[in-house]
Design a protein that fits this description.
Elements (H helix, E strand, L loop, with lengths): L8 E8 L2 E8 L21 E8 L2 E11 L5 E3 L1 H7 L14 E2 L7 E5 L4 E5 L8 E4 L15 E12 L10 E14 L2 E12 L2 E2 L3 E11 L4 E9 L10 E9 L14 E6 L3 E7 L2 E8 L2 E6 L6 E11 L4 E10 L9 E10 L15 E11 L2 E10 L2 E11 L4 E12 L2 E14 L2 E12 L4 H5 L3 E3 L4 E4 L6 E9 L6 E11 L5 E12 L5 E9 L2 E16 L2 E10 L2 E10 L8 E9 L4 E9 L3 E10 L2 E15 L2 E5 L5 E6 L6 E4 L2 E5 L5 E7 L5 E5 L14 E4 L6 E5 L9 E6 L11 E4 L5 E3 L5 E4 L5 E9 L2 E8 L9 E6 L2
Parallel strand pairs: 2-17, 3-8, 9-20, 44-50, 51-57
Antiparallel strand pairs: 1-2, 3-4, 4-5, 5-6, 7-8, 10-11, 10-42, 11-12, 12-13, 12-14, 14-15, 15-16, 16-23, 17-20, 18-19, 18-21, 21-22, 23-24, 24-25, 25-26, 26-27, 27-28, 28-29, 29-32, 30-31, 32-33, 33-34, 34-35, 35-36, 36-37, 37-38, 38-39, 39-40, 40-41, 41-42, 42-43, 44-47, 45-46, 45-48, 48-49, ...
Pfam families: PapC_C, Usher
GO biological process, one term: pilus assembly
Protein name: Fimbrial assembly protein
Length: 805
Amino acid sequence: MPKSTSRAARIAIVVIGTTVSVSQLNAQEVPLEPLNAQPEANTSDGRTLQLEVFINDAPMKMIGTFKELPEGGLAAAPDELEQVGIKPTTDATGDAGLVHLDKLAGVSYRIDESAQRIYVTTSDDGRSARVVDAGVKESEPLQPQSGYGGVLNYTLFASTNTLFDDDVDVFQGVSGAFDARVFSPYGTVNQSFITGYSDGEIDDFTRLNTTWSYSDPKRLMTYRAGDFISGGLSWTRPVYLGGIQAQRNFALRSDLVTLPLPSFEGTAAVPSTLEVYTQNVRTYTSDVPAGPFQVTNLPAFSGGGEARVVLRDSLGRETTATLPFYSSSMLLRQGLLDFSAEVGLPRRNFGIESNDYDERIMGVATARYGVADWLTLEGHFEGGDELLNGGVGAAFPLGSYGAASLAVAGSHNGGRTGTLFNASIELDYGGWTIYGRMQRAFGDYDDIASVTADPVVISSDQFSVFSTGVPRSLDQLTVSVPMPLDFSSLNLSYTSLETADGENSRIVGLSYSQTMFKQSTFYASAFTDLEDSDSFGLFAGLSIPFGNDITATTGLEQGPDGVNVVADIAKSETQENGSIGWRARTSEGDVANRSAAISYRAPFARFEAGVQQFESDVRATAQMDGAIAVAGGGVFATNRIDDAFAVVDVGTADVEVQQQNRPVGKTNRSGRIIVPNLNSYEPNTVSIDPKNLPVDADVPATREVVVPADRSGVVVKFGVSETPQSALVTVADKNGVPLQAGLSGKLEGSGEEFVVGYDGQAYIRGLAAQNAIVVDLGEGKTCRAEFPYKAEPGKQVAVNGLQCL
């Protein structure tokens, strides 16, 4: 139990699930009135009273509605009492559903009718907790945008045969992977495929995905038709289907937190300031009144951590408690429902065959529901033809130390039946992090994958090298161990697997890392299969950063080819246009393996070239990645666009554009540029640097926030005009004194509004050869002035000495 940092207070902590209770007992307590004191006002006329509430002489800063009873006394609705800080009880509730204050145990009150106040005296047990929401206040989400357009992503890879063999052609061929999509406000149609060129002709096309998808952010739903992966849970096996799908998608709201967040409750004897620190960072501060309180939605992250709660009274005395908590992705917040439902034909040999579907229609339904913050229920059903498979599960916290889940499922396929049991646990205590999982299949347990997938075989030996059946047993354990040295970590892993065909493997792994001088890192890892004495691997080395994104690595590795000495030096390529990356690596041992590569990121594509020597075989490779985008009335060559993008229309050339304050390039001759790395359904900030704009340019805004829809493109127009017909006009009154800053005016004939700034200066747009302005002087007074205007390209036109009469 943590000790208080104040001698005048004590703290008791109780941890139940994700809720932490904190009780504060302060030596300075407010004297209580005698119990069951009678009201001082006349209570025989059945009036409804609106009274300001004081509890133990402290104002609640709230007005409650109370009903005078015919027999005397006061009553109020239960929720009304809770809101003003009084705990209602069922034994004090009358026939009309109102709570009689006189029947509340330990509660007394008096009414000051002239001041319209009620003074209630009670103990902490008779008070309802003031709820303090420490979560981020959700603002009105921006409406996702989507225009009309298309994107074609491509990857082209070319390789040579051995460079020093005169008996073979040097050129081996080109392979390509393509991902095309067309987007609109009605959804996105995606088509991906692979093909190649070799022996003088184009290879066959292999179709990958053909999918239409549409997302509804208001309902948090995504709908798909075509090829997709079915929904699933940690104890199920999702499959590729060709059909239709409806799925809950929490990712459509970037501000939505789905994990149960820690909460705690306590009592303040006097009005205090509450501060909450999560991982030594202050995440919340607020004033709390005297009495019990409850803090909900404490900002946290997945995994274990600690929150430090500080109560500070008006004299500056502090009471501190350290509260452990644990948040897990196994759990859903109370009331949240996550689900997926789909029906279609199981797809086989994806990436090998274009249209290999099983003829049997299968359906899948998966759901998770947060019954409470301490309990999440799971359910899964799949089947079709002769297959029926269903199961249920539950996930729950283990206090503030971790979480666990249990699941059981059964299947029936023709005359075959079977069951499956799955249990998992994750713990975090004292720096130890543990994850464990155990799964067992009994009888003839089947799912969609086991009854529809084709086993992978080697034709020469005719034996299966990949079992499609559900594993008979699966055990996993990973442990992260705290080390006595700073900046070091030790991780152990164990996996035991018995396939449906009876093949066994037990793999043990160990890794260690230690940060050393100048951010250098020593690391070592080893693994072995306990079922195969010849299976063993070891790698140990030292990584040294040199700055400018350059890192060197050296070490030893042992594998199937024996012991090798490895040296590697590389410069990382960044996302900025014009970035160059390179790498040189050598592995010296029984078999020499040397390679070198260089990459360059241009505004329109990314290029990489390399050469590799393996023993006496030397080959060269080349790769090009990029995209062609059609949107906003233009066609753009750019780097890959895996998510959303924006076409930024500034209106003038050579203006720097930034995304999230990171430069992405300058506008072309038409004043536009494509920004390829936006995140769907999240606010993305796009801005321009106006320093390269002409001095007479009109810039309505330099920053825009956009929320693109799913993998779509949006057009961001900044509306910069190089000929805005504007001038900087200095306006004075009839005595030559500059008009007061803040006055507003209008340009006659156009209705263009402007505001007078300091020294009587106003920026006025929409000017003609002759102009007249009217300025509102306040108190119903106005003044008027006329002036001529002549544009001067490349210069800011100024009109001085204008008198407003």
